[in-house]
Amino acid sequence: MIQSAGDPAQSGSYPPTLAVRGEILHFTGDPLTDGADATHHHEDGLLVIRNGRVVAAGDASKLLSGLDPQTKIVDHRGKFIMPGFVDTHIHYSQTDIIASYGQQLLDWLDRFTFPAERKFEDPAHAAEVSEYFLDELLKNGTTTAAVFTTVHPVATDAFFAAAEKRNLRMAAGKVLMDRNCPDFLRDTAESGYEQSAELVRRWHGRGRLSYAVTPRFAPTSTERQLELAGRLLDEHPGVLLQSHVAENAGEVEWVAELFPWARSYLDVYDRYGMLRKGAVFAHCIHLDDADRRRMAETGAAMSFCATSNLFLGSGLFDLHQAREQGVTVGIGTDVGGGTAFSLLRTLNESYKVTQLRGHSLPPLQGFYLVTLGGARAMGLDAHIGSFEPGKEADFVVLDPSSSPLRARRNRLASGFEERLFLLMMLGDDRAVHSTYVMGECAYESPRATYSL
Ligand code: GUN
Ligand code: ZN
Q: Facing residues of 146 across strands?
């Protein structure tokens, strides 16, 4: 068992033993590179949980007989049980500007994003949006996310407090932004550094929370601010980093003007020591082979944000090339540039992006990317992302028959992988039957299962 001092699973506040029966799918490796052994599929499976952690996952026929007689068994046969989804890039402060019409990145930031983020100077607003946002994540089966707050420390406190109350494994950070932004959102290199360090001390490692140093993107930070962001990472081992890179053609040109010494956009972050394990860069569309090589050798991860990249007209992420070159990749919704909280809907659009790139996205790889792949991208795979014994029991129960059409189409599927593909192409929040956090039900859908 993976346990440590001060661990929430030690507090004894969880149901004694729970067993959940259904079609189990999880990964202990990457199905692309680690072969069939990395995929664990149990058509009639049982997930056994004690003190909020996984005890075993396997065939019901083998595990049922060994259960303690006190065990509560929840029957979800006909549904999939998977590790909770991991969203590797999202902005809670952009919840209320999702689907804002008609602009590309830089104009969209000025017109919609910065005014929306200004409201988070008010702690009451930040607290209200935090609760709504976390409800929405759970409703979509997402149990862990890498979250941008805003430049305001109070907005970061509000988010962490809301996540802590629900015992969620979340990473978040105050945005660093000391130039090329409105005055009302600007910090300074020094104030951003001090405030981030204070937030790290207050929140990092508390319960299931991690701090992520969060320079918004190279154009809105001076070189001094980027240098201090790198210093924060060195001074606080285990803290994550999140930023944006190479999303939009105009943005890439702007970075070339602002940092004439850099070989590429990514090279700016490299100069300040930000490429490392536990660093997640959203978008990564306009990169070259040398950039991808650098990400692979440093362990920095990419967040593929398909709905956002299509909505903002940013471009087509090259998943095939990233995976070929050995880069760690997760999937991000990037709400509010992205148009869905649902990682199922995001997989749907990810598949279409790969098709436009001349490849495809097999369902096993898709579900790997939103579970263990995302956990690896965030450096959290010792805790979450699979059903290995000792891991935290965050999981989602998915209903493949959550609409009449889905039920009809699912009935015609010829095997497990086709049923999974249907879930990835037709699924959304309606497909989420329930979401569990550390073995406790945190969301249950009011909808019925359709049987035709
Ligand atoms: N680049 C810098 N800031 C942002 C943001 O808020 N959203 C997206 N999609 N890209 C960014
Ligand atoms: Zn973003």
A: 171
- Closest atom, ligand 1, to C-alpha of 338: 9
Total residue length of the chain: 452
Q: What is the pLDDT of residue 126?
A: 98
Helix segments in 247-339, DSSP class H? 249-258, 265-271, 289-298, 306-311, 319-324
Q: Whose CA is nearest to atom 1 of ligand 1?
A: 244
Q: Is 3 exposed, middle or buried (0-12, 13-18, 19+ CB in 10 A)?
A: exposed
pTM of the predicted structure, to 2 decimals: 0.96
Beta bridge partners of 213: 241
- pLDDT confidence of residue 449: 67
Spacing, Cα 248 to ligand 1 middle (Å): 10
pLDDT in tens, 205-229: 999 999 999 999 999 999 999 999 9
Give residue 1's pLDDT.
32
Upper half-sphere CA count for residue 352 (Cβ side, 13 Å): 14
Q: What are 279's two structure tokens?
A: 């660093």
Nearest CA residue ID for atom 7, ligand 1: 337
Enter the DSSP assignment of 169: -
User: Hey, whose CA ends up nearest to atom 3 of ligand 1?
Assistant: 216
**Number of alpha helices (DSSP H) and beta strands (DSSP E) in the chain:** 17, 16
Ranges in the chain, pLDDT < 70: 1-16, 448-449, 451-452
Ligand nearest to the CA of residue 103, numbered in listed order = 1
Residues with a CB atom less than 6 Å from ligand 1: 91, 105, 109, 113, 216-217, 244, 247, 308, 334, 337
pLDDT at 447: 76
At 197 the pLDDT is 98
Outline where 389-449 has alpha helix (H): 404-411, 416-426
Residue 9 CB partners (closer than 8 Å, separation 6+): 3, 51, 52, 53, 392, 438
Say which residue the tokens 């009809």 belong to.
408
Rounded-to-integer distance, Cα 58 and Cα 264, Å:
47
